[in-house]
Amino acid sequence: MAGHLGRGGHPPGRPVTDGARAGRTASARGRRPGPTETREAILAEAREMFADKGYDGTSLRAIARAAGVDPALVHHFFGTKEGVFVEAMRFPVDPAVVLPHLLSQPHERLGESIVRTFLQVWDDPDRRAPILAMLRSAMTNERAAAMMREFVTSALLVRAEAAGAVSRLSIQAAVGQMIGVMILRYVLLVEPMASASEDELVALVAPTLQRYLD
């Protein structure tokens, strides 16, 4: 939780801009910071800005300025602000990839596709951990809640609605349903939900999601 909300996402006692300072220190010694150092410096500044200013209040240009690099370099490494957020906050999926895949499915199978996508992501402990950290933070910290709300609205809900496939309320209902299932299955470990197979959960939950989306 603290990893997503602290200054720069760093543990207590660690300088908030280690990455940027490392790059500047390397330059001061006469050595240009390498791509890895520069990339990490950008992510450190981005993490801090997203936590402080929220998703909507942060721009690629501002991140670049804070990291002391050209905005074109940020674009080169991450493509868009959304791409920076996904990397900086360790968001487990890239909406720019996942959403087009989901929306390319036949409408009558959209509920099933959402269930399987959620299960694939949450079944991986490395991808599940940052989601849980963000959810816990959002439930206790208004800044964290605002950051997640802005990102989810901009990257997922608005885009899905603009594609004409589903309404914003419908996709919110579907996502809310799946978050509840994931909490029961992977956090509370409630049986038999925790040990049910993927196909069992798809057969059980997908029709409900499909009803929302229809």
Automatic annotation (TrEMBL):
Write the protein's name. Answer: TetR/AcrR family transcriptional regulator
Top-level taxon of origin:
Bacteria
Q: Which SUPFAM superfamilies match?
A: Homeodomain-like, Tetracyclin repressor-like, C-terminal domain
UniProt organism field: Actinomadura montaniterrae
Spell out the Gly residues composition-biased ranges: 1-11
The record places domain HTH tetR-type at 36-96
Q: Which residues cross the membrane?
A: none
Q: Where is the composition biased (Low complexity)?
A: 19-28
Q: Which UniProt keywords apply?
A: DNA-binding
Q: Which InterPro entries match?
A: Homeodomain-like_sf, HTH-type_TetR-like_transc_reg, HTH_TetR, Tet_transcr_reg_TetR-rel_C_sf, TetR_C_16
Region called Disordered, residue ranges: 1-38
A molecular function (GO) term:
transcription cis-regulatory region binding
DNA-binding residue intervals = 59-78
